[in-house]
Amino acid sequence: MVGKTVIETSGAVKGKVKDVMFDLGGGVAFLVEGDDGKDSQVALSKVTGISEHVVIETEPTKDSGLSGYGMTCKFCGAPKSPEERWCPSCGRSQT
Ligand SMILES: [Zn+2]
Q: How far is the CA of 94 from the centre of ligand 1 (A)?
């Protein structure tokens, strides 16, 4: 398994399997070394197929703007995460 090329279902090459490890939840994850030399963890649950290459689900791309926050301040419209009880922009309570 180590040394196999990891590709996403979109066809993009993510990197190479550097190690196989167990994550904190007891699941299996691949340590993948990317082309940029940065390691990332890929959970086995993301793997859709293993043959010549390891194929993983394409990660959802985070577009700029509201995604990643999911909510906007009801007063000023600034993006905020649902966990934030006060707007990071105008500071007003969201409850
Ligand atoms: Zn606000």
A: 8
